[in-house]
């Protein structure tokens, strides 16, 4: 009986313990439920507040967006667009004022100069260009930067917990070089005036008869400087208007009448014969007119190839005989070597030894071997430097079948010296040495070696 009682008491105690445990669990569950509900409500409230904050900033730019020195934080599309339009208009309304000689004043607008003005949006080193008319698109882009991030990330940006991407908006101005070139060409055409050198004309049929035309100074405007300074301005972000004054400068003639008046003395002349009525003769006549009247200051050079082939006179040579591979062939300008040869001998008699001279391949009929001067485009030239202390004037004339090239200079240009050419042929008569003998009065004071020429036999 006692054992039955004890078992019942244990059962009652166990039931009471279980009941107590259940009560505790229920209490804990209720507490957890209450806490969870409160946390969910708090999280829901926080999310709601976060959403409200982010939504409130949806149409406003985040921080670190710069238009020049102005930060666009919390600015909407309308404001940013207006600021962009104002800035663009300020640049478009600039002017460039150019004055010449303080009188001629021209005002150019950016539209006249066709300047290109754009906004450049730099995001992390990557540039996007927005030309005129795209200000609204740029404003929308600025406001939309980082708006694709999560709600939490955007809220962290607003609270300063997260750094937003830095964006710089700048103005880019670019000059139109074609337009600037056109502009300065107009100024050059209007203000540049080339100087006119004094000229001299002689009459061969009347020795000593010389007519001199006085020189005229010119003017020049430094258009290179205008183009450089205007380009620098248009390629900069300068908001101030461009305003410059430029002056023309005097350009003096290089050949003055006072120089030419002293050129009154014939110092060397040489003549050769030719047939003037055929094509070759016409070529000789044309070449003679092209070298006639050339003026050389001391140390100045002249290339006969450049001068004799200068067709700015609108004329051209005909085809006539010339040497090729020891044969006579028809070439354009055949015969003009007679002009360079005649001039070569005239220079030697004047005491001037050309710095570049070549013989013909074969001997020519109009000059002694060793005293000819061949011309061949790109191969042979006669180049003369005025080695005298005073200027010289080259004259060439054709009278009948005679070509004469003469050199004029100052009265004492040769300083009392006279010059004579001399040649010595080798045993085969195809090798010729040429010399220039220098005399003082009748005394031979020096012999200058000119060249050793080797000619070839003409093939049928």
* Low-confidence runs of at least 5 consecutive residues: none
| Global structural class | alpha+beta
Average pLDDT over all residues: 90
- Per DSSP, the total helix count is 10
Strand content: 25-35%
Largest sheet: 5 strands, mixed
Overall radius of gyration? 48 Å
General shape? elongated
Strand line-up across the major sheet: 2-1-7-5-6
Describe the structure.
It is a single chain. With 460 residues, the chain is α+β, with helices and mostly antiparallel strands. The protein has ten helices and 23 strands. The strands form eight sheets. The chain has a five-stranded mixed sheet with strand order 2-1-7-5-6, covered by helices on one side. Strands 13-20-19-14 form a four-stranded antiparallel sheet. Strands 4-3-11 form a three-stranded mixed sheet, with helices on one face. Helix 2 runs antiparallel to helix 3 (135-144). The longest helix is centred in the first third of the chain and has 55 residues, at 2-56. The protein is elongated and about 170 Å long. The model has no long low-confidence stretch (mean pLDDT 90).
């Amino acid at each position: 009986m006692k054992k039955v009682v004890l078992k019942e008491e244990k059962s009652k105690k166990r039931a009471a313990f279980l009941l107590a445990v259940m009560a505790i669990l229920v209490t804990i569950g209720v507490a957890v439920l209450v806490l969870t509900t409160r946390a969910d409500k708090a999280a829901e409230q926080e999310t709601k507040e976060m959403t409200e904050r982010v939504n409130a900033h949806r149409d406003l730019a985040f921080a670190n967006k710069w238009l020049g020195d102005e930060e666009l934080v919390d600015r909407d599309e309308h404001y940013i667009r207006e600021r962009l339009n104002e800035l663009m208009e300020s640049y478009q309304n600039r002017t460039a004022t150019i004055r010449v000689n303080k009188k001629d004043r021209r005002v150019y607008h950016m539209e006249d100069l066709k300047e290109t003005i754009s906004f450049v949006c730099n995001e992390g080193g990557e540039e996007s260009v927005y030309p005129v008319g795209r200000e609204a698109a740029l404003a929308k882009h600025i406001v939309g930067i980082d708006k694709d991030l999560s709600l939490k990330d955007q809220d962290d940006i607003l609270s300063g917990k997260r750094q937003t991407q830095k964006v710089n908006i700048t103005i880019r101005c670019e000059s139109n070089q074609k337009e600037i070139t056109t502009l300065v060409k107009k100024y050059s055409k209007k203000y540049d005036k080339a100087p006119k050198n004094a000229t001299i004309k002689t009459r061969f049929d009347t020795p000593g008869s010389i007519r001199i035309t006085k020189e005229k100074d010119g003017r020049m405007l430094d258009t290179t400087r205008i183009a450089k300074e205007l380009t620098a301005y248009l390629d900069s972000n300068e908001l101030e208007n461009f305003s410059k004054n430029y002056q023309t400068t005097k350009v003096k003639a290089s050949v003055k009448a006072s120089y030419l008046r002293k050129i009154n003395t014939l110092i060397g002349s040489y003549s050769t014969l030719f047939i003037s009525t055929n094509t070759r003769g016409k070529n000789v006549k044309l070449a003679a007119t092209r070298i006639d009247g050339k003026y050389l200051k001391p140390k100045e050079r002249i290339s006969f190839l450049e001068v004799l082939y200068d067709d700015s006179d609108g004329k051209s040579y005909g085809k006539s005989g010339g040497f090729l591979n020891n044969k006579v062939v028809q070439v354009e300008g055949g015969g003009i070597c007679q002009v360079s040869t005649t001039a070569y001998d005239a220079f030697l008699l004047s005491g001037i030894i050309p710095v570049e001279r070549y013989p013909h391949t074969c001997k020519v009929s109009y000059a002694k071997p060793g005293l000819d001067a061949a011309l061949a485009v790109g191969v042979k030239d006669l180049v003369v430097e005025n080695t005298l202390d005073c200027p010289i004037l080259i004259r060439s004339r054709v009278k009948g079948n005679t070509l004469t090239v003469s050199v004029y200079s100052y009265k004492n240009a040769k300083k009392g010296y006279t010059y004579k050419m001399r040649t010595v042929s080798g045993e085969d008569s195809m090798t010729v040495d040429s010399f220039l003998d220098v005399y003082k009065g009748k005394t031979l004071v020096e012999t200058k070696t000119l060249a050793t020429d080797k000619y070839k036999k003409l093939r049928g």
